[in-house]
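User: 2,3-bisphosphoglycerate-dependent phosphoglycerate mutase, Levilactobacillus lanxiensis:
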Amino acid sequence: MATLVILRHGESVANRDNIFTGWSDVPLTAKGREQAAAAGKLVAATGLQFGALHTSMLQRAIVTSNIVLEAIDQLYIPEYKSWRLNERHYGALRGKNKAAVKAQVGEAQIKIWRRSFETVPPLLDHVSQDRRYDQFGPHVEPRGESLEMAYHRLLPYWTDQIAPRLLDGHNQLVVAHGSTLRALIKYLDHVADADISKVEVANGEPIRYDFDDRLNVLAKQTL
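Assistant: Predicted structure for 2,3-bisphosphoglycerate-dependent phosphoglycerate mutase:
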């Protein structure tokens, strides 16, 4: 048996300002740091010891991770950062205010772009690759993604890096983003494509999964 705890980063400046963010590297707000510290206390109260932490390559998740690890007194555990855990890429919507986009295209269209499993947002014309992704080869950053595309990007990381450690009996901690965690929840909870739009992952609220020795979910709890 092993336990997985997943956590969405604390509030970012883009969350605060209601901006589409995706792979843009924005910092936490003061409130976001407080949310991360509060989440750390909730995780600490479980008494869980983790074998490793997994996070994205974006600072709002990385800083949240460090705050949580300090709160649970486990800064010493291995940390793995992967672009596969990055937020869903919102394409040409990136950097735009959600309310302004809604005013332009209507509530129905923006809801489809934000919550549909299959729909791809308007794509960027081109991407200038960030140097942090150079080690993974060219064309890592997409021009835009549906949640389905983010789901398929995420799953190899689960299969190769997280699941084997859980199968070995080592608890794992994942600190990532709203959409990639929705994708992981879809996989773990067997959520239908049509129903994933109803799944919400709040900033700074840890979710605990307990598994049997074949990674069947025995229990799920929001801490």
